[in-house]
Amino acid sequence: MERLAARIILLWGWQRALAAFASGGLAVAALAPFDFPAVGFVSFTVLVWLLDGATGVPQAGFLGRLKPAFATGWWFGFGYFIFGLWWIGNALLVEADSFAWALPLAIIVLPGCMAVFYGLAGALSRIWWREGPSRIAVLAVMFAVCELMREHLFTGFPWNPVGFTIAPVPVLMQSASVIGISGLNGLAVLIYAMPAILISKRFVKTGVFAATILAFAHTGFGLVRTAIPPEIAADQLVVRIVQPSIKQTEKWDEEQRSAIFDLLIELTGKPYGPEAKPADLVVWPETAIPFLLTERPSALSAIGNLLGARQMLLTGAVRVEGDRSSPTSARFYNSIIAINGDGEIVDAADKLHLVPFGEYLPFSEALSELGLSRLVEGPGTFSPGASMTTLALPGGLKALPFVCYEIIFSNTLPSADDVSVVINVTNDAWYGKTPGPYQHLRHAQLRAVELGLPVIRAANNGISAVIDSHGNIIDALDLDVRGNLDVNLAVAPIGTLYQASQGFYGYFLLAGMLIFGILTGFSRRLRSN
To answer: Do 486 and 510 reside in the same domain of the chain?
Structure first.
C-alpha cells in the first residue's frame, strides 16, 4: 500500500487530474440506484493521497499554494457530478429540436460549476493539512461546509450530497435523525478517507480504531433505532396515490389535456378491494391537472362528484393570481391544491424553490435577447411562493408539502407539533429510465428520517411511494407503471434530535472534528520542530 500511495502522491499534470476525475466518478457507484458504498473507501483514500501531493510553489503566495489542492478537488468533483448528473441531459432531449443545443450546458457546464464546491473543500482543507488523522478530519469538515454552501448559494442545488454514499439502506440512514445530512456528509468522508493513514505506521492503530468505532456506531445506531417498535399510531390515514404515467411530450399538448384529466378521474375512481377502505386522501402528481382550474370550472365539479363527503384530493396544479390577459399582473405558481368532496378548493401551497431555466429564466431580459427560454412548458413563468405553509388533511392532520425537488433541501424544519406527514408531488418524466428518479426517491427517504415523518410521494411516471418515518418504503409503483397505490398509513411521527435541535448536533459534530483536526495537527507540528 505504501508503494501505491507514493505513486499516487507523486502524480502530476494530466495524470493527477485523471486520477482525481476517476476517483470522483467511482464514488457515484455508492449512490442510488447502484448502492455499492464500499467504493467510497477507494475514492476518498485516493483523494487524500492526491491532496498529499498537491503542494504549490512556495514563491506563489498563499492563494497560489492552494491552487493544486483546488484543482485536485475540482477534478474529483467533476467526475462525481458528471457521472452522477448526466441524466439531466435527458430533459433537453424531450424537445430535442428546441433544446438539444444546450446539452453540453447540462452534462458538462453544470457538473463543472458544482465541482467548484469540492475544489474549495480541497483548497480549504489544505490550509490545515498535516500528517496523520488530523488531515482526514479537516477534509471531512470542509466537504460538509462546502455541501452546505451548495445547498444555499445561487438558489441551491444539494443533489447527491456525499453523505448519501453511506446511507444506501434505511438501517444506514438513521444517523441523519441526529446529525442531519450535514453531519452525515462529514461522517462519510471521515470514515471513507481513514484508510489513507495506513501508509504511516505511527497512525495505523489510531486510524483503524477510529474508522472501526465510527462505522460500528453508525451501523449500530441504525440497527437499534429501526429495531425499536414504533408507538401505536393514534391516526390512520387511508391513502390512494394516482400515477398516470403521462409522457412529457404529451403533458402540455392542448389536444391531450382533456384525455389526461379523464385518465386521472378514471384511475382515481377505480374500485377498491373487497377488504379495503375508501381513501381518506387521494394524491395526484405535480402539475397533474394540465390546465388552469379557473378556466374549467367543470373540472372541479367532476372531482367533487368523484370524491366522497369526507375525502380530499391533493393535486399538483398551476395556480394563477391576477388577470391572465395582462402579462404584467398575472402571477403563476407551481402549487399543491386541496379539493374537498364538494369540489371546492379549500387550501393551497406554492412551490418555494423554483428550478432555474426550468420554471423561470434568470436574468430573463438579457437572456431572452440571446434566444434562451425556459425548458418547461406552461401558461407562463412561475413565481416562488411567499413562505412554507402546511396543508390541513382529513382527521385533523397537517402535512408539510414539497413540490418536486424541494424535498432535497434539508433546511426546511417544521416545529414538532405542526406536522404529521410529508406530501411530495413530482414529475420525473423528464428523465426517463435513468438514475435520476431513483436518486430523487432516495432524497425523500432521507428527509423522512431527518424529520421523523412518513412521506407520501406521488410521481407522474414514478417512482410513487409511501415511506415510513424510518425511511422504509412501505409500498411503491415502479417507473412508467400506470395505476394507483392504496396504502393504509399508520401516522406515527417520531421526534428526532435533528428536527428538535434545528440541526445543532450535526454542526456540533463538525465543530468537534474541526477542532480535533486543527489542534492535533498543530501539536504534531510543534513536536516536530
So the answer is: no
* DSSP H or E stretch at residue 455: strand 455-459
- Give backbone dihedrals phi and psi of 240, rounded to 5 degrees, phi first: -120, 120
Q: Where are the alpha helices (DSSP H) in 412-491?
A: 435-451
Nearest to 159 by CA among 438, 358, 440, 384: 440
Q: Higher confidence at residue 235 or residue 88? A: 88
Do 76 and 99 fall into the same domain?
yes
**pTM, rounded to two decimals:** 0.92
Of the candidates 292, 235, 239, the residue with the CA atom closest to the CA atom of residue 261? 292
- 424, 310: one domain: yes
314 and 442 co-located in one domain: yes
Verify that 473 and 443 share a domain, yes or no: yes
- Of 151, 359, 404, 450, which residue is the catalytic one? 404
Share of the chain above pLDDT 70, in %: 89
| 445 plus 511 within the same structural domain | no
Q: How far apart are CA 222 and CA 178, in angstroms?
A: 11
Is residue 175 scored above 50 in pLDDT? Answer: yes
Rounded CA-CA distance 46/33 in Å is 24
Of residues 146, 147, 251, 286, which has the active-site annotation?
Answer: 286
Give yes or no: 404 in active site: yes
Among the listed residues 146, 251, 351, 359, the single catalytic one is 351
Cell (9 digits) for 171: 438501517
- For residue 55, the enclosing domain spans 2-227+502-528
What does the pLDDT look like over 36-93, one tens digit per residue?
999 999 999 999 999 999 987 777 777 888 999 999 999 999 999 999 999 998 877 7
Q: Are 217 and 319 in a shared domain?
A: no
Catalytic residue flag (residue 351): yes
Q: How many domains does the chain have?
A: 2
E strand or H helix that includes residue 145 = helix 133-152
* pLDDT tens per residue, range 145-163: 999 999 999 888 999 999 9
pLDDT digits (tens, 9 = 90+) for 290-334: 988 888 889 999 999 999 888 999 999 998 887 666 656 778 899
**Residue 247 annotated in active site:** no
Higher pLDDT, 229 or 443: 443
C-alpha 78/C-alpha 489 separation (Å) is 41
Q: Are 121 and 44 in contact (CB under 8 A)?
A: no
CATH number of the domain where residue 279 is located: 3.60.110.10
Over 70: is that where the pLDDT of 183 sits? yes
- SS3 (DSSP) at 490: strand
